[in-house]
Design goal:
Alpha-Beta Plaits; 4-stranded antiparallel β-sheet; 5-stranded antiparallel β-sheet; single chain; globular; alpha+beta
């Protein structure tokens, strides 16, 4: 595969107009997500890097697509601000270089961390973008303020499109003040049903929980962890309120800032399931009340490991890679409305098995027409989102 470097938006458009099929890459940290791409050339966006606008008072930041996420987070930290959707670093899971991802890759794959359940996902924080479609046409969507959408919200449509409809060249994001401090309440020994009940009760309370996870540990009781963030006095008051509400369930331990941050960083980056070769990792979205029953069914699959995030609305599952139709086995157990994506597996398995949740024919027909309107000749990341 020939690597073609682009150093400007115009050069991206010119390269696309040449008509070759292209695999799109910034740092390459997300190439292992989705189905393997079959393309003639790789379009490298490494030359499109740098923060182009940052207005801390307006809570707005714009950056070229290949700008390292670490660079963006560093400049935000100087002004005590952050990306509220808490972007994960899946390098340990994917076997790639740590702290190497770009903002374009995060938006293209719509990856959000534990705060997703209260702050929204990536697409809720994208205010605007510039991109080039499969015809080589440069276009702009959204803007640099929150209330700027008329007609179709292309920012939400293109976020999570895995580079199959357009190549991002610049992205504008809403940023928020970073929490002054954090701590976590920890309940040990709850089974999945009791844990989901506690997490739902906490999330529905006035305590302002910003994270809720249930993580089993081999040979140790599972942990149900609830995160509180904000100003110190506020966190303390909300903690007492939450303790009063949960007093009947189990005594709670308290993790202060350092231990709390370390735990939630591991949950964000799916560390409990990382570092295990020859295993497939699934990301399953569902409603919290569905989680305990599904966990019980998945436990019957040989070698399964799992934990819950987003208050029970996200289930991470790890299974040994096998020759059987693993995708069928997992999806056959899903409750109505749940979605399963194969996040990590060897390329051969991601080629043979459906990576993304299969959609009903009518919905798939609509999606295909939308893709066709942006990339009629399927030049951009061909095959990456094929069912």
């Amino acid at each position: 595969m020939t690597i073609i470097e682009a150093d400007s938006e115009e050069s991206v458009a010119d390269i696309i107009k040449q008509g070759n099929t292209l695999e799109i890459a910034g740092s390459g940290s997300k190439l292992g997500l989705g189905r393997p791409v079959t393309a003639s050339n790789r379009l490298s966006l490494r030359g499109l890097s740098g923060i182009t606008l940052y207005e801390p008072a307006e809570l707005v930041l714009s950056a070229k697509a290949a700008t390292p996420l670490a660079e963006i987070e560093a400049i935000l930290a100087e002004r005590h601000q952050a990306l509220a959707f808490e972007p994960p670093d899946l390098s340990r899971l994917l076997g790639t270089t740590a702290n190497h991802q770009t903002i374009g890759g995060i938006v293209a794959t719509n990856l959000s961390g534990p705060r997703r359940c209260v702050a929204g996902g990536v697409r809720d924080h994208v205010l605007g973008l510039r991109a080039v479609n499969g015809r080589g046409e440069i276009f702009r969507a959204g803007g640099r303020v929150v209330k700027n959408v008329t007609g179709y919200d292309l920012c939400k449509l293109l976020t999570g499109s895995y580079g199959t409809m357009a190549v991002f060249t610049e992205i504008t994001l809403k940023v928020l003040p970073a929490p002054e401090t954090e701590e976590s309440l920890v309940l040990a020994g709850l089974d999945e049903k009791a844990a989901v009940g506690v997490m739902c009760q906490a999330m529905g309370s006035s305590a302002g929980i910003s994270g809720a996870a249930w993580v089993p540990h081999q040979g140790m009781p599972p942990l149900t962890v609830l995160r509180l963030e904000g100003f110190g006095p506020s966190v303390e008051a909300r903690r007492q309120r939450l303790l009063t509400r949960l007093a009947l369930h189990a005594p709670a331990d308290l993790w202060t800032e350092d231990k709390s941050r370390s735990f939630w960083r591991d949950v964000r980056d799916v560390i409990p399931l990382a570092g295990q070769p020859d295993r497939a990792v699934w990301k399953i979205s569902l409603t919290p009340p569905q989680a305990p029953d599904l966990l019980g069914k998945l436990a019957a699959l040989p070698g399964s490991q799992a934990f819950l995030d987003w208050g029970g609305a996200l289930l991470w599952l790890s299974l040994p890679c096998g020759a059987d139709a693993q995708a069928h086995a997992v999806r056959a157990l899903l409750p109505i409305g749940a979605h399963a994506m194969l996040m990590v597996a060897p390329a051969a398995i991601r080629t043979e098995q459906p990576v993304f949740q299969p959609q009903p024919p009518a919905q798939m027909a609509i999606e295909n027409r939308v893709r066709q309107s942006f990339d009629p000749d399927q030049r951009l990341n061909p095959g990456r989102m094929t069912q």
